[in-house]
Design goal:
five-stranded mixed beta barrel; 5 strands; four-way junction helicase activity; alpha+beta; OB fold (Dihydrolipoamide Acetyltransferase, E2P); ATP-binding; DNA polymerase, domain 1; Helicase, Ruva Protein, domain 3; 222 residues
């Protein structure tokens, strides 16, 4: 299994990138969001990868973070969502946006991805509603700071490193808040939904404030 590719970009396209690793070129398919975030040709990059193996096909799919790779694996567990459809969804929503859409049951947001119809979008939300909170709660743990990971390259191309982006503080707050609420006994799906709604409040600038706001939403209504 190829879990990570690090090398020099020799070609870029909207749906894939060709990375030279010590003279061997790897074609890695990526979402449009990831493609737009990559450095220019001649510079170094690193992507976490998932290898698709079929009888007559080997394809690598790349992700800027381990969290996004985990979402890809979850998405492709849904019938009708292949690797390309998963990249379309992640390219439209990103990892955090996808988690929020599923937590809130917002299948219309998923449907905004190219090639995803309403029935398929509803299936994604329905089938992943119970599974998504566990991935959301692991957000901070699944993020690796690649700044300390060297890209080793023998070619004379520029060696400027482009580390994969780390999770935003809001992503960390979300993961920690969901984990805390689950530990308090709330169902993961309820915790994820409340945290997703509470994160809209600009005042939820840290984990404690996000938890308090979510608890208010989870409190029994008179």
């Amino acid at each position: 299994m190829i879990g990570r590719i690090a090398g020099i970009i020799v070609h870029r396209a909207m749906d894939h990138v060709l990375i030279d690793v010590r003279g061997v070129g790897y074609i890695v398919y990526v979402s449009t969001r990831t493609a737009q975030s990559l450095p220019p040709v001649g510079q170094a990059c690193a992507l976490y990868t998932d290898l698709l193996v079929r009888e007559d096909l080997l394809q690598l799919f790349g992700f800027p973070t381990l969290l996004e790779k985990e979402w890809h694996k979850l998405l492709t567990s849904v019938q009708g969502i292949g690797a390309k459809a998963s990249l379309a969804v992640l390219g439209t929503l990103g990892a955090e946006g996808l988690g929020r859409a599923i937590a809130l049951g917002d299948w219309a947001a998923v449907k905004a991805a190219p090639g995803v119809g309403p029935k398929l979008a509803q299936r994604v939300v329905l089938e992943l509603k119970e599974k998504a909170p566990s991935v959301m709660a692991m957000g901070a743990e699944l993020t690796v700071d690649t700044a300390a990971l060297d890209v080793i390259e023998d070619a004379p191309a520029p060696r400027t490193k482009k580390p994969a982006p780390a999770a935003t503080p809001k992503t960390n707050f979300t993961a920690e808040a969901i984990s805390a609420l689950t530990n308090l006994g709330y169902a993961p799906s309820d915790a994820a939904s409340a945290v997703a709604q509470a994160s809209d409040d600009p005042e939820t600038t840290d984990t404690a404030k996000l938890i308090r706001a979510a608890l208010r939403l989870l409190a029994p209504k008179d």
